[in-house]
Write a structure and sequence with these properties.
Oligomer: homodimer
Number of domains of chain A: 2
Number of helices of chain A: 14
CATH architecture of the largest domain in chain A: 3-Layer(aba) Sandwich
Order of helices and strands of chain A: HHHHHEEEHEHEHEHEHEHEHEEHEHEEEE
CATH class of the largest domain in chain A: Alpha Beta
Radius of gyration of chain A: 24 Å
Largest sheet of chain A: 7 strands, parallel
Number of strands of chain A: 16
Strand content of chain A: 15-25%
Distance between the termini of chain A: 55 Å
């Protein structure tokens, strides 16, 4: 394994070297490189599809699930969407150099706190080949070098995409690794890599927890709740619950559990159950829910902790706001939580006491998204508390430094 | 070890429970608790000194170094300073609830990004017992529960101090662990602990790198440089270099290496060498420095990477600004770096290209400090890039959440 380890270290060292140049590039130079990536994608569609076809064939031979094959598959439309995504990133403001704070001290020192690139970011991801381009473009725009580590099932597709991106950028700025063995080497390159962002399931998270010595921001799963308070507008609650569950069930900000206050359960549950069932949702309820809607499957304890990412919804009746908050605190993953209520005090308590990246009043959890927040494209959603919480956009891919200017000040 | 592990987990679970209450306390309630800590320190001076005497006796018996015994020793003055420190924290603004960003989206959603406590912070520290009070007070003011883990040599002193703090705060908000074995258990309590802040040497850092699964911010060492450019005001350069080295050599923002541009070396080095030697500083120079100041000890490669924390200074002559920046990038630890120059372009390049928390132009590196930056008391200085870089004050002990309010918005 020595050679392989050396090669991971060499790739990361080259990325570190490139990161020094990237940090000083002006916005125009970065945008020009991004435009070369977009143009490269458009010029090399045939080559990309050819590589993707080989990945798909290999995937079928190794019995990849239909869902995974679908995530892996590219077509002209998906490639055009990648190019469009890159051009959206061109249009976003450059975060590097933004003065986020500044002050003059009594002794005359002038201090500015300024956004600067992190340096080298490793992005570890599964099936979808479009992440190769998204991640490369976001890192490039934020002045970071990136080391990509895609899944083995997408090796050929990712290799072509990464080559297109790498050729458009300064040497060493964008590179890609393949295969399982290199993960541990990559996430222990503390001398060269400043941050690891994994985009994947719990298995990947567990592997990183065990091995990573480089700091990690988990773009992790979301077990999100919609709580319908006793003072809710039930029509609004119904629209929000349906949207949060049905509009795109496979994403991390979709709702997985519906909590309903006992006082409105009889008025609310039978109708929403009909609407959700009509939309193809399977409901799993606790005892009081099933008394009102006998057709529901019985929920087990495990349901409260399951991120279905599918048209399934757990349903529970709670006796109070306190019980709703306690349920969310116990079972939530700190992603996106919503209350529907007309009661100002209940809304304030829910927002104050629920410990999550995004806490909604009278809106769908589905808005947790860099684009919806006005931050532009994102590399994922962080459910941890350090550095980035919620959407990880261009500014979250930066650190800062303090620039201090004086005229000879010394400390007494 | 099962019992012990259970007890660490139990302490951390109690802290997590307390953190929910702490997050909702208003500023007055937190300040009242802080005032009780200050008053408790003043009321129980005798008891603190008695416990400290036992620690000192045990330390002498186990051949603790004079330096460590000095850091361990308390007297009435030092206890009064601790109480004064707590009252300074009372006077600082409460970071919790600060709206750091906010916007209204085209669809009418109102989004606020608001500072909130991290939750539970574990602070792992060595000898100095005053850290017990500093860390407890900073965590309390920022609405966090704290689990302290002091060194075994200060067990008795820390126990009394932590008890005084704990009695003044809500149950579970402040607790203390002792002893080596518990470190691994503490830094793997991912369910209960949100952040570990180690204050200690490289050994502690290595242990945490190996074991910690909870996120860590290293309050780490500083190998800081003062670079005297060819366009420097040499009188100013002399004052800054002397201040950065001599004013308090044992701290992380003191300078460890002086870099001097060749063009001014002959005019600058002999005089500064006399001044520094007169101030008790031992100089270790490279070949060109020693040609100008033959009395210097010869520097070895290792000197460029040594944080002396003492009256020793490495000296090197460089041919250019590029060479100075390259030296800092290679040997610096990303803490505090200074250039002395009248050349605007040189100052800008140094600030842009040096990758450190604090980059100074014409000022001493000694200003890297929460108090000097106007942030108030700090728990340490971070040399890593995620979340907190530079002084770790009250705001850096917070995370944020997005509070989103709508009137029924759903995503289409």
């Amino acid at each position: 394994m020595a050679t392989r380890t050396e090669s991971v270290a060499a790739v990361c060292a080259a990325a570190k070297h490139a990161s020094r140049l990237l940090a000083t590039l002006d916005t125009q130079a970065k945008n020009d490189a991004l435009e070369r990536i977009a143009a490269g994608l458009e010029a090399r569609v045939g080559e990309i599809l050819e590589a993707n076809l080989l990945d798909l064939e290999a995937g079928r031979e190794s019995d990849l699930s239909t869902a995974l094959l679908d995530r892996l598959a590219l077509d002209e439309r998906r490639i055009a969407a990648m190019a469009a995504g890159v051009r959206q990133i061109i249009a976003l403001p450059d975060p590097v150099g933004e003065v986020v704070d500044g002050f003059r001290r009594p002794n005359g020192l002038e201090i500015r706190k300024v956004l600067v690139p992190l340096g080298v970011i490793a992005v570890v991801y599964e099936a979808r080949p479009n992440v190769t381009i998204d991640a490369a473009a976001l890192c490039l725009k934020s002045g970071n070098a990136v080391v990509l580590r895609g899944s083995s099932s997408a090796t050929r597709s990712n290799a072509v995409l990464a080559q297109i991106a790498a050729q458009a950028a300064p040497a060493g700025a964008i590179s890609i690794l393949h295969g399982r063995d290199e993960l541990t080497e990559l996430v222990t390159q503390t001398a060269h890599v400043d941050l690891v962002i994994p985009r994947g399931g719990e298995g990947l998270k567990a592997a990183l927890m065990e091995h990573a010595t480089v700091p990690v921001i988990y773009a992790a799963s979301g077990n999100c709740h919609v709580y319908v308070d006793s003072a809710a507008d039930l029509q609004m609650a119904s629209e929000i619950a349906i949207n949060a569950k049905v509009q795109r069930p496979g994403v991390c900000n979709a709702a997985e559990t519906l909590l309903v206050h006992r006082e409105v359960a009889a008025a609310f549950l039978p109708q929403i159950a009909r609407d959700l069932t009509a939309a193809g949702v399977e409901l799993r309820g606790d005892e009081p829910s099933r008394e009102l809607v006998p057709a529901m499957v019985e929920a087990s304890e495990a349901d409260w902790d399951t991120e279905y990412l599918a048209l399934t919804l757990a349903v529970r009746v709670v006796d109070s706001l306190d019980e709703a908050i306690a349920h969310v605190q116990r079972h939530g993953t700190g992603h996106s939580e919503a209350i529907v209520t007309r009661d100002r005090a209940a809304a304030r308590r829910f927002q104050r006491e629920v410990d999550a990246a995004c806490v909604y009043v009278n809106a769908s959890t589905r808005f947790t998204d860099g684009g919806e927040f006005g931050m532009g494209a994102e590399i994922g959603n962080s459910t941890q508390k350090l550095h980035a919480r919620g959407p990880i956009g261009l500014r979250e891919l930066c650190t800062f430094k303090y620039l201090i200017e004086g005229d000879g000040q010394v400390r007494s």
